[in-house]
Amino acid sequence: MNKIQKAVVVSLIATSALAWIASINQPDMMVAMTTYNPLSISLFTASWTAGMAAMMFPAITPMVLMYNRFATNNKGNQSSVTIQEKEEKEGKTTSRPSFPPLRVILFVGSYLLVWAVTGIALLLGWSVVMNSTIMTTGNSLLIQYVYGSLLIVAGAYQFTPLKRICIGYCESPMSFFMRRWRDGTSGAVNMGVYHGVYCLGCCWAYFLLMVALRWMNLLWMGLFAGIIFGEKMWSRGIWVARAAGIALAVTGVLVAAGLLPSLISSTVYTTGSEEGVHDDMKNMMKDDNPSNNNNNMARSDSSSKDSMDMPDDSIALVGAGDESNPIEPDHNGRSEESMSNDNDDGQTEIMDME
């Protein structure tokens, strides 16, 4: 590996590391889904694109390195790719001109553009389903079936011919460039878009789950990044994809059966239990509000004043209606009489004892 190739690798890895750091704090995509606020959608798109760079750059490093090799060739056309492939097999070396940074940047940038558009499409598309079913009904059984079906579909896709074709081009950069090579800056953009489309064909199911199940966090991003890396870097990456497909399908069955409620609990906002929690939180907020406390104190003061201003007849009626009060309303007279009677009884008892 020469200096230019090392620079490419270091650049991709450094960008991926920075993107992982930027992905620690993810914006709340629910705001963008429910309000369609352009600012929220823009923040999600930026965060999504950074996440794609973090997850995909390690896996596309061989593709970028091979593009750099072909782009630095003097001829830079499809025939030169074939000639260079033959020369590499025969052990021949050719002179390499300076590193063309613009073409590589365009190749990687157009690749990321595909994923940015994909993120917006997934966000808006899933928001329609969510707002029309999950957010309106709040039926926990329906939510289980919807999310379970998504996981099962994502797992079944891993066994389809389209998945096998797309992963074949991602595993073999030479096959990709032999089929899609274009020269110049426009060719860099063209091939970057094609490579992004092939990667989309490989991995769209994973990213649908990340949006639909709100799995845009470091744990799930790291798990899917490892699966994608294994699919693209190993010559038998299709087996990694199928193993992941089995795991997703089994998880989908368990979710649909209601055996994994915690897996989708973070995605549910309008179930009955959560509505009760939100009501309790609102009541607590009202109690904590100083203005409400002042109003409550004012009401209690006014009620106490009203009770003090009540006439004696009303007080007598209230006391008479209270059967649990052992002392009569006219407590001054009667209580004294009862006390005198008690004193007389006590004196007679003493005299009898003597």
Per DSSP, what share of the residues sits in E-state strands of 2 or more residues?
Answer: under 5%
- The gross shape turns out to be globular
Give a short account of the largest sheet: none
Low-confidence stretches: 74-80, 93-99, 269-290, 303-341, 346-354
What's the N-to-C terminus distance?
Answer: 122 Å
Order of helices and strands: HHHHHHHHHHHHHHHH
Q: Number of folding domains? A: 2
Query: Helical amount among residues, as a percent range?
Result: over 70%
What is the overall pLDDT average?
76
Please give the count of helices.
16
Task: Give me the secondary-structure category.
Answer: mainly alpha
> How many DSSP-defined strands?
0
User: What's the alpha carbon Rg, rounded to whole Å?
Assistant: 37 Å
Can you give a write-up of this model?
With about 350 residues, the protein is mostly helical. The protein has two domains: about 5-75 and about 100-270, no CATH class; about 310-354. Helix content is about 80%, strand content about 0%. The protein is built from 16 helices and no strands. The chain has helices at about 5-20, 30-35, 40-70, 80-90, 100-135, 140-155, 160-170, 175-180, 185-210, 220-235, 235-255, 260-265, 270-290, 290-310, 310-320, 330-354. Helix 1 (about 5-20) runs antiparallel to helix 3 (about 40-70) and helix 6 (about 140-155) runs antiparallel to helix 11. The radius of gyration is 37 Å and the shape is globular.
